């Protein structure tokens, strides 16, 4: 069974743009159901990104997600080292700020990829980011996943793969 590892932008974009909490109840109920049955998870770094804002999304996550939804990223430090090596190998492509942001200890992206890399046959990254392999200003999750053979999908593709409708 696949486990989908959710990026913070999935939560944030759904809340702010596509599926507001006060309108799209079926979306958020389905998200809660998938979280409760372990089909979707995330990591502590994503939690930090979401919980830094005092808003309805933080409250919804606190009230609706299981206590073990946000996984500890510390055990994937070896995989994180692989992600760091990949990023450092791209020093001629990306601008220094892009590398610095991606490798920041507070930034979730590299740890999210590392978490999926720890069990690549099972864990699939879910993100709204779009590949931009020739980009220089920001390292995109799909580009790293492609090179490290980590599966990734967008949120709607995740729902399709799971046969979920709402």
Written overview of the protein:
The chain has 166 residues and is α/β, with parallel strands linked by helices. The protein has one domain: 3-Layer(aba) Sandwich (Rossmann fold). Helix content is 51%, strand content 10%. The protein is built from nine helices and five strands; from the N terminus they run E-H-H-E-H-H-E-H-H-H-E-H-E-H. A five-stranded parallel beta sheet has the order 3-2-1-4-5. The longest helix has 12 residues. It is globular, with a radius of gyration of 15 Å.
Q: Which structural class do you get from the secondary structure elements?
A: alpha/beta
> How helical, in percent, are the residues?
40-55%
Rg over C-alpha atoms, rounded to the nearest angstrom: 15 Å
Relative strand content:
5-15%
Strand order of the largest sheet: 3-2-1-4-5
Number of strands: 5
The overall pLDDT average reads: 97
The stretches of 5 or more residues where confidence is low (pLDDT under 50) are none
Shape estimate: globular
- At CATH level 3, the topology is Rossmann fold
Element order: H for helix, E for strand:
EHHEHHEHHHEHEH
The CATH superfamily turns out to be 5'-nuclease
CATH class call: Alpha Beta
| CATH architectural type | 3-Layer(aba) Sandwich
| SS field, number of helical segments | 9
Largest beta-sheet characterization: 5 strands, parallel
Distance between the termini: 21 Å
Count structural domains: 1
């Amino acid at each position: 069974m696949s486990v989908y590892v959710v990026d913070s932008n999935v939560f944030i974009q759904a809340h702010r743009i596509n599926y507001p909490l006060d309108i799209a109840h079926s979306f958020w109920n389905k998200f809660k159901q998938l979280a409760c049955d372990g089909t979707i998870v995330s990591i502590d770094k994503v939690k930090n990104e979401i919980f830094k804002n005092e808003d309805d999304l933080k409250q919804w996550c606190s009230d609706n997600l299981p206590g073990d939804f946000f996984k500890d990223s510390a055990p994937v430090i070896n995989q994180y080292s692989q992600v760091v090596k990949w990023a450092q190998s791209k020093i001629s492509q990306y601008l220094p700020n892009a590398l610095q942001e991606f490798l920041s200890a507070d930034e979730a992206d590299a740890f999210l990829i590392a978490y999926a890399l720890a069990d690549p046959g099972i864990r699939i990254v879910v993100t709204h980011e779009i590949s931009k392999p020739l980009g220089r200003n920001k390292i995109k999750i799909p580009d790293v996943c492609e090179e490290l053979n980590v599966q990734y999908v967008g949120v709607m593709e995740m729902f399709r793969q799971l046969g979920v409708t709402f």
